[in-house]
């Protein structure tokens, strides 16, 4: 991996939504089932948010976040630009979020994977 992790900043919002739209283009106009950038609705909801940035180009290539759903229960959002998949970016983001989950004494983590986007 030639990317480094950094805390999510507001300036990353559009790039993260761009990755999401590239991965799930059919959801861009589906306001009932999907809304791009939904994890940004309430900044107090996300316990941890990180981005992966290509070191030499300042190109955002991945995003990971956990959001509290109930006490000690969290939901995971993890995405990596298609050109950067299978290069350790998702693994690095997940490892960082896992550290945070341990520190938060999480007892449950929920994540979904689309059947047509299997690993």
Key attributes of the depicted protein:
119 residues, alpha+beta, Aminopeptidase, five-stranded mixed beta sheet, 2 helices, 22% helix
Question: How would you describe this structure to a colleague?
Answer:
It is a single chain. The longest helix has 15 residues, at 89-103. By secondary structure, the protein is of the alpha+beta class. The chain has two helices and five strands; from the N terminus they run βαβββαβ. It starts with a strand and ends in a 9-residue tail after the last strand. The model has no long low-confidence stretch (mean pLDDT 84). It has one domain: Aminopeptidase (3-Layer(aba) Sandwich), CATH 3.40.630.30. Strand 3 and strand 4 (73-80) form a beta hairpin. It has helices at 13-23, 89-103; strands at residues 3-7, 46-54, 59-70, 73-80, 108-110.
Short synopsis of the structure:
The protein is α+β, with helices and mostly antiparallel strands. It is 22% helix and 31% strand. The chain has a single domain (3-117), classed as Gcn5-related N-acetyltransferase (GNAT) (Aminopeptidase), CATH 3.40.630.
Oligomer: single chain
Largest sheet: 5 strands, mixed
Indicate the percent of residues in helices: 10-25%
Question: What is the CATH C-level name?
Answer: Alpha Beta
User: Would you give the CATH topology?
Assistant: Aminopeptidase
CATH architecture: 3-Layer(aba) Sandwich
What is the terminal separation in angstroms? 18 Å
Mean pLDDT, all residues: 84
Q: What is the radius of gyration computed over CA atoms, rounded to a whole number of angstroms?
A: 14 Å
